[in-house]
Amino acid sequence: MWELTKTFRFEAAHTLHRKPELGAGEVESSRRIHGHSYRAEVTVRGVPDAETGMILDLSLLEAALKSAENGLDHRFLDEVAGLGPATMENLSRWIWEHVSGSIDGLCRVTVFRDSQGETCSYFGPTG
User: Fold this and answer.
1) Sheet holding 106-113, edge to edge
2) Rounded to the nearest 10 degrees, how much is the dihedral formed by the CA atoms of 43, 46, 49, 53?
3) What contacts 107, CB < 8 A, 6 or more positions away?
4) Are 108 and 121 in contact (CB under 8 A)?
């Protein structure tokens, strides 16, 4: 079994509504529009095709990722349809949903906010 991963980056702004127990300063700063630099990794798992030697042609994966990137890059995430609150959890799920229809073997989407040392992975629906 092999895993193949492709990465893309995007810049985006958002707001967050946080719980009051975090303290007034944290809640207030999150509600203001602010932005982050994100990195997303999309991973497929499978066995290479005997003829091509590939799990998946990277050009197909790149095309699917370009569509997701275009939906997020330089966007106000609060306005992205189907995203919900602009959390790393929802970003990884949103990317999964936009890639899974065209990519077989999708097994993981990870969103990184490197400047904060934060990562969130989505593994898709179970069952």
Assistant:
1) 75-76, 2-14, 34-46, 106-113, 118-122
2) 50
3) 3, 43, 44, 45, 123, 124
4) yes
Q: Would you say the C-alpha torsion 91, 95, 100, 106 has a positive or negative sign?
A: negative
pTM exceeds cut of 0.85 = yes
Complete domains list, the chain, with CATH? 2-122 (3.30.479.10)
Condensed to tens digits (0 to 9), the pLDDT of residues 78-121 reads 999 999 999 999 999 999 999 999 999 999 999 999 988 999 99
Report pLDDT digits (tens) over 5-42: 999 999 999 988 755 555 555 545 556 788 999 999 99
Tokens representing 93 are 């799920």
CA nearest to 39, candidates 98, 93, 109, 125: 109
Radius of gyration for the alpha carbons in the chain, expressed in angstroms and rounded: 16
Distance spanning both ends of the chain, measured CA to CA:
21
Q: Do 37 and 8 touch, CB atoms closer than 8 A?
A: no
